[in-house]
Amino acid sequence: MEELVKAARAVRDKAYAPYSGFKVGAAVLSGSGKIYSGCNVENASYGLTICAERTAVFKAVAEGETEFSALAVVADTLRPTAPCGACRQVMAEFGISKIIMCNTKGEQRVATLDQLLPAVFDKHDLTGDGKC
């Protein structure tokens, strides 16, 4: 997981955050073992901003990956930063169960998606297969 955090930390520098100054980096580990990284990209129309976590996942999906085991996120915060709700929902879609939250001081916290997003809405809700 050290390489995953390292990739998230490195891509954070590439974030486009001219409005908030809040730079975030993320990296996701695919089922094939490849790491995909992404940063947040802001827009003057704030609703069009995309988070680093979704950038990393969508980048991997664009390369044909749909299975993932872990995601790391890094930001310059007082405590390790947690993904927003939209990113948590995307992680649920792709079964990313391990999330490594970090700050730039080197502090880390690891959580499962179940801890961060209890009572998730996912594809099982759409298919009616009875998953609770």
Describe this structure in words.
With 132 residues, the chain is of the alpha+beta class. The protein has one domain (1-125): Cytidine Deaminase, domain 2, CATH 3.40.140. Helix content is 30%, strand content 23%. The chain is built from five helices and five strands. The protein has helices spanning 2-12, 52-62, 85-93, 113-116, 123-127, and strands spanning 24-30, 35-39, 68-75, 98-103, 108-112. It has a five-stranded mixed sheet. A hairpin with a 4-residue loop joins strand 1 (24-30) and strand 2 (35-39). The chain is globular. The N and C termini lie far apart (30 Å). The mean pLDDT is 94.
Please describe the topology of this protein.
Layout: H1 2-12, E1 24-30, E2 35-39, H2 52-62, E3 68-75, H3 85-93, E4 98-103, E5 108-112, H4 113-116, H5 123-127
Parallel strand pairs: 3-4
Antiparallel strand pairs: 1-2, 1-3, 4-5
Concise synopsis of the structure shown:
The protein is an alpha+beta fold. It has 5 helices and 5 strands. It starts with a helix and ends in a 5-residue tail after the last helix.
Q: Any descriptors?
A:
5 strands; single chain; five-stranded mixed sheet; Cytidine Deaminase, domain 2; 132 residues
